[in-house]
# Entry
Amino acid sequence: MSNIKQEMPLLARHEGEWEGIYTIIDAAGNVIDKHHSYLIHQFPENGSYPYDQINKYTWEDGKFEEHHFPATYQDKKIWFDTERLQGYAWEVDDSIIILWFKYKALPEAHMYEMIHLSSCRNYRDRTLHWFKNNQVFKRTMMQEHRVK
# Structure
């Protein structure tokens, strides 16, 4: 049995369902995309992975995407290696998680995401910086609230 919840207590506090808005801007600050999100964070008791995340995205025009991100656990980090992306996340303090990853379809780029959980555990603010050629080329800002 993994001790992920004991060794990553902040990650454990993210367990549940979150709803929010993703706003993506280019390097000049222009909005290039905006859509709704519904994320599920879970720690399955049985199965191949001690952590699992499901992201559902909906756009105003009806477009819908769903992505699954199971993760392994080692050395106080969760490790993702899915068909879509590869990366890992770690806790910085009692309110911040940092995630480094890269999309397999964009091998020349990588991302850093900062995830802040409020002290009441009901709100999250996240910022994602997209890097290519050592420069930020876009950013994603996410504001979420706990649904369950």
